[in-house]
Automatic annotation (TrEMBL):
Keywords: Methyltransferase, Nucleus, Ribosome biogenesis, RNA-binding, rRNA processing, rRNA-binding, S-adenosyl-L-methionine, Transferase. The lineage of its organism: Eukaryota, Viridiplantae, Streptophyta, Embryophyta, Tracheophyta. It comes from the Eukaryota. It is found in: Nucleus, Nucleolus. CDD domains: Nep1-like. This is Ribosomal RNA small subunit methyltransferase NEP1. Residues 1-64 are annotated as: Disordered. Residues 25-40 have a biased composition (Acidic residues). It holds the Pfam family EMG1. InterPro entries: Alpha/beta_knot_MTases (IPR029028), Rbsml_bgen_MeTrfase_EMG1/NEP1 (IPR005304), tRNA_m1G_MTases_N (IPR029026). It comes from Escallonia herrerae.
Length: 262
């Protein structure tokens, strides 16, 4: 019986190896083509698209209000306010003994008599009570008072911010006024803001243009009701300036007021 002829070198195995290598290369090529096709057909990252849309909208509409961030529009036209001027306040500093003090009729009566001065004219408590009433008023709590100016009998003019808390006791008030007249300003604690400061005369240069200056005088013959007077004499855009005397005797100057009422 004749045996089958055997080819040297294992040709059959080589064919199988070649067929397997070809099949593997074809599968890898098909996988690369499939992945490339999927990448071309699949959409982009949705987050990136949202970011691109958002930036485009912002570029197209830069003034558009962003969602979730409230934007407060500023009103350029400010509401009319009220300004107080305390005229002829008896706030004078003198050296009594070894220290400087704020002169008053109660504490320095003998000192004033020795210097031929009338003790009845030295009433710093009037300015103290007037400032307390103005700064504690509902008008100031509503934010309608713009500023308060005080001019002394000697002509020294200083400004008081509406949000200042004036001391309740006269002793502490006299110490603050003494410091103000010596150092020309008082700063807030831990801040550079000047709560009270001495400024240059005249006071009219600090008043708004569209303001009505009303002076109070007990001797005025024009006795009015404040609500009726303001409703007739003033407009909606007028700033009111009230000139009040902070002295025990005398009258305020007419140059500071357009009208005198009682």
């Amino acid at each position: 019986m004749v045996r089958p002829f055997k080819v040297k070198g294992g040709g059959g195995r080589k064919r199988k190896k070649r067929d397997e290598s070809y099949s593997r290369e074809e599968e890898e090529e098909e996988e690369e083509v499939t992945e490339q096709f999927i990448e071309e057909e699949s959409p982009k990252n949705p987050r990136k698209e949202e970011e691109e849309i958002t930036t485009r909208d912002e570029e197209d509409n830069p003034n558009e209000e962003l969602a979730g961030i409230p934007v407060v529009l500023s009103n350029q036209k400010s509401d009319p306010g009220v300004i107080f001027i305390l005229e002829k306040a008896s706030l004078e500093v003198a050296k009594v003994g070894k220290s400087y003090q704020l002169l008053s009729s109660e504490d320095h009566a003998n000192f004033l008599k020795r210097h031929n001065r009338n003790p009845a004219n030295y009433r710093p408590d009037i300015a103290h009570q007037a400032l307390l009433m103005i700064l504690d008023s509902p008008l100031n709590k509503a934010g309608r008072i713009r500023s308060v100016y005080v001019r002394t009998e000697k002509g020294v003019l200083f400004e008081v911010k509406p949000h200042v808390r004036i001391p309740r006791t006269y002793k502490r008030f006299s110490g603050i006024i003494l410091q103000l007249l010596q150092k020309l300003s008082i700063n807030a604690v831990g801040k550079r803001e000047k709560l009270m400061r001495v400024i240059k005369n005249p006071v009219t240069q600090y008043l708004p243009l569209n303001s009505l200056k009303i002076g109070f005088s007990h001797s005025s013959e024009k006795l009015v009701d404040m609500n009726d007077y303001l409703s007739v004499a003033t407009g909606n855009d007028d700033n009111l300036v009230f000139v009040v005397g902070a002295m025990a005797h005398g009258r305020i100057d007419k140059e500071f007021a357009d009208d005198f009422i009682s």
